[in-house]
Amino acid sequence: MQKTINPGVASQQPSATSAPCSHAGVQVLGEQGAEGRKAFYIHIEALPGKEQEVAQMLRDIRNAVETEPATGPWFAVRLASTTFAIFEAFPDLAGRQAHVEGAGGDIFRDLARMNRILAFPAQVHRADVLMSKDCFAHLPL
Protein backbone atom coordinates (compact mmCIF):
# COMPACT_ATOMS: atom_id res chain seq x y z
CA MET A 1 0.00 0.00 0.00
CA GLN A 2 1.37 3.40 -0.93
CA LYS A 3 1.18 6.16 1.63
CA THR A 4 0.69 9.70 0.43
CA ILE A 5 2.88 12.67 1.18
CA ASN A 6 1.35 15.88 2.43
CA PRO A 7 2.26 18.23 -0.45
CA GLY A 8 2.80 21.14 1.93
CA VAL A 9 5.30 19.30 4.12
CA ALA A 10 8.31 19.82 1.86
CA SER A 11 7.77 23.56 1.84
CA GLN A 12 7.64 23.88 5.61
CA GLN A 13 11.03 25.10 6.79
CA PRO A 14 11.25 25.28 10.58
CA SER A 15 13.76 27.78 11.88
CA ALA A 16 16.89 26.72 13.73
CA THR A 17 15.22 27.92 16.92
CA SER A 18 12.03 25.93 16.34
CA ALA A 19 10.97 23.38 18.89
CA PRO A 20 11.77 19.79 17.88
CA CYS A 21 9.38 18.34 15.32
CA SER A 22 6.93 15.61 16.13
CA HIS A 23 6.70 13.13 13.26
CA ALA A 24 6.90 9.42 12.51
CA GLY A 25 10.62 9.49 11.62
CA VAL A 26 10.13 7.58 8.36
CA GLN A 27 7.47 7.47 5.68
CA VAL A 28 7.60 4.44 3.37
CA LEU A 29 6.30 4.93 -0.17
CA GLY A 30 5.76 2.52 -3.03
CA GLU A 31 5.05 -1.16 -3.42
CA GLN A 32 7.22 -4.13 -2.47
CA GLY A 33 7.12 -5.25 -6.11
CA ALA A 34 7.90 -8.63 -7.62
CA GLU A 35 11.05 -10.58 -6.82
CA GLY A 36 14.22 -9.16 -8.39
CA ARG A 37 16.84 -6.51 -7.66
CA LYS A 38 15.54 -3.85 -5.27
CA ALA A 39 16.56 -0.41 -4.03
CA PHE A 40 15.64 2.38 -1.68
CA TYR A 41 15.84 6.08 -2.49
CA ILE A 42 15.56 7.96 0.80
CA HIS A 43 14.93 11.72 0.80
CA ILE A 44 16.12 13.41 4.01
CA GLU A 45 15.49 17.04 4.98
CA ALA A 46 17.49 18.40 7.93
CA LEU A 47 16.15 21.02 10.26
CA PRO A 48 18.11 24.24 9.68
CA GLY A 49 21.19 24.13 11.90
CA LYS A 50 21.09 20.32 12.16
CA GLU A 51 22.96 19.55 8.93
CA GLN A 52 26.07 18.24 10.70
CA GLU A 53 23.94 15.93 12.84
CA VAL A 54 22.28 14.56 9.69
CA ALA A 55 25.73 14.03 8.14
CA GLN A 56 26.71 12.12 11.30
CA MET A 57 23.53 10.03 11.00
CA LEU A 58 24.55 9.18 7.43
CA ARG A 59 28.01 8.12 8.66
CA ASP A 60 26.35 5.97 11.32
CA ILE A 61 24.14 4.30 8.71
CA ARG A 62 27.15 3.76 6.42
CA ASN A 63 28.98 2.03 9.27
CA ALA A 64 25.93 -0.15 9.93
CA VAL A 65 25.53 -1.32 6.33
CA GLU A 66 29.20 -2.34 6.06
CA THR A 67 28.39 -5.69 7.70
CA GLU A 68 25.17 -6.34 5.79
CA PRO A 69 25.93 -8.98 3.15
CA ALA A 70 22.88 -8.13 1.02
CA THR A 71 23.38 -4.36 0.95
CA GLY A 72 25.17 -3.62 -2.30
CA PRO A 73 25.92 -0.20 -3.75
CA TRP A 74 25.24 2.47 -1.12
CA PHE A 75 25.48 6.22 -1.62
CA ALA A 76 24.74 9.18 0.63
CA VAL A 77 24.49 12.50 -1.22
CA ARG A 78 23.83 16.13 -0.42
CA LEU A 79 21.40 17.83 -2.78
CA ALA A 80 21.24 21.25 -1.07
CA SER A 81 22.33 22.76 2.24
CA THR A 82 19.62 20.94 4.23
CA THR A 83 18.64 18.25 1.71
CA PHE A 84 20.29 14.82 1.71
CA ALA A 85 19.51 11.45 0.17
CA ILE A 86 20.55 7.82 0.32
CA PHE A 87 20.46 5.39 -2.59
CA GLU A 88 21.05 1.76 -1.76
CA ALA A 89 20.57 -1.45 -3.73
CA PHE A 90 19.87 -5.05 -2.82
CA PRO A 91 19.90 -8.34 -4.76
CA ASP A 92 16.30 -9.21 -3.83
CA LEU A 93 13.34 -8.63 -1.51
CA ALA A 94 14.90 -10.69 1.30
CA GLY A 95 18.07 -8.58 1.20
CA ARG A 96 16.11 -5.35 1.35
CA GLN A 97 14.00 -6.64 4.24
CA ALA A 98 17.12 -7.79 6.13
CA HIS A 99 18.45 -4.25 5.75
CA VAL A 100 15.21 -2.76 7.12
CA GLU A 101 15.42 -5.06 10.14
CA GLY A 102 19.13 -4.35 10.70
CA ALA A 103 21.19 -1.65 12.39
CA GLY A 104 20.58 0.93 9.64
CA GLY A 105 16.85 0.56 10.15
CA ASP A 106 17.38 0.90 13.88
CA ILE A 107 18.82 4.37 13.30
CA PHE A 108 15.64 5.46 11.50
CA ARG A 109 13.54 3.88 14.27
CA ASP A 110 15.20 6.21 16.82
CA LEU A 111 12.26 8.64 16.83
CA ALA A 112 13.81 11.01 19.35
CA ARG A 113 16.86 11.45 17.09
CA MET A 114 14.76 11.73 13.91
CA ASN A 115 12.49 14.38 15.47
CA ARG A 116 15.49 16.31 16.78
CA ILE A 117 17.28 16.58 13.40
CA LEU A 118 14.76 16.08 10.55
CA ALA A 119 12.27 18.67 9.30
CA PHE A 120 9.85 15.88 8.34
CA PRO A 121 9.97 12.08 8.15
CA ALA A 122 12.62 10.59 5.90
CA GLN A 123 10.78 9.60 2.72
CA VAL A 124 11.77 6.04 1.86
CA HIS A 125 10.87 5.19 -1.74
CA ARG A 126 10.85 1.48 -2.58
CA ALA A 127 12.17 0.86 -6.09
CA ASP A 128 12.80 -1.96 -8.53
CA VAL A 129 16.24 -1.85 -10.15
CA LEU A 130 15.68 -1.99 -13.89
CA MET A 131 19.31 -1.64 -15.02
CA SER A 132 22.66 -0.87 -13.46
CA LYS A 133 26.32 -0.31 -14.13
CA ASP A 134 27.92 -1.74 -11.04
CA CYS A 135 31.52 -0.63 -11.37
CA PHE A 136 33.44 2.44 -12.42
CA ALA A 137 35.02 2.38 -15.87
CA HIS A 138 38.58 3.66 -15.73
CA LEU A 139 39.99 5.52 -18.67
CA PRO A 140 43.47 4.53 -19.83
CA LEU A 141 46.19 6.99 -18.85
Helix share bin? 25-40%
How many E-type strands? 5
Secondary-structure content class: alpha+beta
Biggest sheet architecture: 5 strands, mixed
Lateral strand order in the biggest sheet:
1-5-2-4-3
Mean pLDDT value? 87
Q: Roughly how many Å is the radius of gyration?
A: 16 Å
Q: Report the β-strand fraction as a percent range.
A: 15-25%
Tally of helical segments: 4
Residue runs with pLDDT of under 50 for 5 or more positions: 1-18
State the end-to-end CA separation: 50 Å
Helix/strand order, N-terminal first: EEHEEHHHE
Sum up the overall morphology in one term. Answer: globular
Folded structure, characterized:
- The protein is an alpha+beta fold and 141 residues long.
- It is built from four helices and five strands.
- The chain has a five-stranded mixed β-sheet with strand order 1-5-2-4-3.
